Model the fold of this input.
Amino acid sequence: MIWEIFITGIALEVLFLRWYFNWKGPMTKKEIEDFMEKFPELPFSSNTDAGVIRQFLEEDNGKDFCMANFITLNKGKVKNPVTGESQDALSGAQSYMKQILPTLLKHGCHPVQQAYRVGGHIDTWGTEDKMEFPMLAMVRWRSRRDFAKIVAPSRPKGSKGALETKVSSMKNTLNVPIEIKVSLFMRPQYSVPLLILLMCCIAQIALTTI
Done:
């Protein structure tokens, strides 16, 4: 029985790794060209330079990345474009994330953190435009291929009204893809294997003490 426990643990770890990481390598030239053909029809194309998105995809290294979203929400109540009801902007932004979250999880993507500014600019120089974004949200994307797959449909499955809700809630936003090189937080690729190992050890102890 003990061996079965750890075999099950190994199987769970394999399933997790298969879901959480990109095993197909960088995007192919054909995948990039197929995406760029659809790009002019996508909702965010009016706010994104085609050359910037093409370079981002062509420089794909096959690794995961995070999208840092600097956000300013609208003040007061905003009208929900789907229900027509009034709601605060934060509720609208949260509604957007709830709608898109199942699609993100399906592709091994997930929110990383949400933070709010608690002061003004400190130790800042070399820029005339001091950005005033009171909110930061980060989302982890499994790969640039997954990013392209999720944003390519003009209306991703299960996201009816999500984009409209997002736009109505936000006054402005600045989004930048980044790669995390150093982090003191234990990321899922480390915490999940340890959690599985801990569960196996607890199961083993429970069986041996019965």
